[in-house]
Amino acid sequence: MPSDESPAPAPVSPIELLGRVPYGRLATSMRALPFLAVARHIVSDGRILLRMHSGFGYHEACDGSVVAYGADNYNAASADEGDDLWSVQFTGPAEIVHPCPEQAELFGAAPVSANGEPFAPAYLRVDPHFVTEHTLDFGASQLVRHAA
Known about the structure:
Elements: H1 14-18, E1 23-30, E2 33-44, E3 47-53, H2 58-62, E4 66-72, E5 85-96, H3 101-107, E6 113-114, E7 117-118, E8 121-126, E9 130-136
């Protein structure tokens, strides 16, 4: 008997969700103090490649350490279109890498500056070990707005 219902969309993995937004936040510690740093990311062969400014030295603090990385669609989701809000977080070991030309191209144009100094890219590869995803389903009729 035919059904008028459309098939449910295939589930998307948390790592695939990262491909829907360009930036996230890297968390680790440096000199025994925690820090968060913004990073551009791409997904390549199940691993996450990050591009960040080398002038801060954050990439060196992360090299060989377990880091946390998170990204979300909080600023990109459209309640008008019924998009759910989601966030993805993962932990895993990081290492400094040099992306191949194809990977470097996926990052797109780099920022011109970081904190007023010329942007100098550094790249990390993170192998996600523990991955979590959280969603907030508002439904198509519930608008997400900031209170005045």
